[in-house]
Amino acid sequence: MGNHPAHKQLTSCGNPLIKAAGIAAAFTFSANAFATTTLDVMALYTDGVEAQYGDSVETRLNQIISVSNKVYADSNLDIELRLVHQQHVDYSDSVSPEQALTDLTCDFTALQTQGVCNRGEAFSQVDDLREQYGADLVLLMRPYANSHNNVCGIAWIGGYGTNGDFSNPLWRETGMGVIGMDGPCGDWVTSHELGHNMGLTHSSLQDSEGGTFPWAWGYGESDNFATIMGYAWLFGSNSQKVYNFSSPDLDCFGSACGIDRNEANGADAVHALGVAAPQIAAYTATVITDPNDGTDGSTDGETPEETQPLDDPDEAKQAWLDAKEKLAGLKAERKALKTEQNTARTAYKQARRAYNKAYNSYQRQLTQLNSLYQQAMQAINDYNAGSNLTTAQQQNLYNAAISKVDSYNAKVLEVSASAEELNALLDAYNSAKDSYEQSQAAFEQAKAAVAAQKQVVADAYQAYQDALNG
Question: Sorting pLDDT into bands at 50, 70 and 90, what band is 356?
């Protein structure tokens, strides 16, 4: 039997918390690289969240969800989170994140040995709500508090040590996390904690091995970057957080964002998530259909009429030939739409890469701007404190302060220009995404029309044969 620890996201420093519980076997699954996997999320929130956001709680939660979806998209992952339910719970905002996760989660030992949950009293409805709304993952959202001891989030590691096998029903109970909102905690923390739920650990600087696979963890380079699962400060004071998961196929400031999983110390969280996500999406039967998927249980295209029996062989033959001609036209339309879809997909990927590159550059500039601000303030303070110095010394301090302020102001202009560029690229990205999704929907409708018309052709041919033999 293995362990599935709980990992927490720190605001500054700390040791990873390990919690033990029983799990099972080891199999290998293949990632589905084509279909988008939707993971349904239920968010429980406390008095503090309600007090801060009031009627806008759902809007704020969806904003956090969208940040995670952006991380998946920038990692070239076909994974989307969907908030299917949010509900207030009567639970303390000040209890430690570790205790909150324990209260939120079933007692693993009791669950394995006795089949009982023993969840904390405040969360007694979690099982019923999870089934009612089809939630695969459950998050407890609380405002960050000083009593959280620099912990922004904590979550169980799903599928720990199983080589990507989440089939044991007990893994469903590891789909739990506790998130600290706002304060020092960025919205990206949710994607980090859900990364744990989906089988990822931090990085080789924090953990001895990956999660569900040995290579299922984050990655970073000294004084350069750390991916979403790693702690940037561990990689050096100049290291920057990049908002994607580790992968040797992604670029992070000119370096690969990971190491091939077949190599020593491999780091490929993207591939691991591709394996895990479809299994996690099956944790709970889907209840809420996507209101944006363009379907309502019926087809948007033309509904083929049933072929009526024809007694005249010539009429039956003509009906068959007409059906074949229509099928040929639908196939040609499908082919054209497939070409449009491929073109739109390429444009979407290019727009996404351009935005991601500009976003990372903008984040680096913000860090530089903050550093220049600190330097300018220090130089000003030094000058103000130098009233007892000689005139020459005061002049030197004044010149130094002016130089630092000029550098800061120049960087402000540079950051403003980058922000304008970033906004333009975001508009282009959203436009390309919309075009791709529309082309994808059109192609799927064309595929369905071809499939339906094939049946019409088959029925018409059978009617023709029946007329000949009648």
Answer: confident
